[in-house]
Design goal:
With 250 residues, this protein is of the alpha+beta class. The protein has one domain. Helices cover 28% and strands 23% of the residues. The protein is built from eight helices and eleven strands. The longest helix has 12 residues. The radius of gyration is 18 Å and the shape is globular.
Length: 250
């Protein structure tokens, strides 16, 4: 089962999620209804190596379901780029005027959120792959989800992510990739979890988070979560780079 078509625009769904992501019960009722979305980079853009994936919600805060995802190349999402593009467009009298939200909606490409939870089998996989598979399966584990979400909201009102910044340099543009929402245990405290993306090329079966060579296997961090913005040594997460976020919060 896939996400249903919303009567709201892409930007309106993203703005709706801005309200919902600060509400613990809304997150439980919506974000946990599935655990993956599919992405074919070539349908968004075949030439850029980073994408922003925004979360949206079509249903009211107190209703279940309605989660959706939207992709935009990072270079098209800079606040300055969007503003300049809009100003240039607006100054051309021969074109029909459109609003800034119209421009933003034209940039956002919907990607399918799978509302049927997928349980990954760990049989026959390498120990490294199994660690990633276990993180994927954690998303379907009610006690693990509760542990992660309760920790996010300890000490008063908090929030969960608004978007992912994804390195897609190793994605095959014409191949479909399944991006699994996962909960990765902390290396120092296995009872603490961080939300992550585990990406599988559905054509080759390769898990893109794994880097294997003759000597060892290492893990690649494909996705950076925002907020927080301006994470140490990660300039791609600076807030002005997320123009859609800025407009959604105006």
């Amino acid at each position: 089962m896939e996400s249903t078509q919303s009567s709201l625009t892409s930007l309106a769904c993203i703005q709706n999620w801005e309200q919902c992501r600060t509400n613990q019960s809304s997150i439980e009722n919506s974000l946990f209804t599935g655990n993956s979305f599919t992405l074919k980079v070539g349908t968004v853009s075949p030439v850029f190596n980073r994408l922003h994936i925004y979360i949206g919600k079509a249903t009211p805060e107190n209703e279940s379901g309605g989660i959706s995802f939207y992709a935009v190349p990072s270079v098209c999402d800079y606040q300055s780029t969007i503003q300049t593009e809009y100003e240039n467009y607006s100054s051309e009298p021969q074109k029909v005027a459109r609003t800034l939200p119209d421009l933003v909606n034209s940039k956002l490409v919907p990607v399918d959120f799978k509302t049927t939870p997928f349980k990954y089998s760990a049989q026959g996989e390498s120990p490294s792959a199994q660690l990633l598979i276990d993180s994927v399966n954690n998303w379907n584990n009610e006690s693990v989800r509760a542990s992660w979400l309760n920790a996010k909201f300890e000490g008063g009102p908090r929030y969960v992510l608004a978007a992912f910044d994804i390195d897609v340099s190793d994605f095959e543009p014409s191949h479909e990739h399944t991006c699994f929402l996962a909960l990765k245990p902390d290396a120092k405290n296995p009872n603490d979890y961080t939300i992550d993306l585990v990406v599988v090329n559905t054509v080759t079966g390769n898990i893109l988070n794994l880097e294997e060579n003759e000597n060892n296997v290492s893990f690649r961090d494909l996705a950076r979560l925002v907020p927080p913005f301006g994470q140490a040594k990660r300039p791609s997460t600076n807030e002005p780079n997320f123009g859609v976020y800025q407009i959604a919060n105006e």
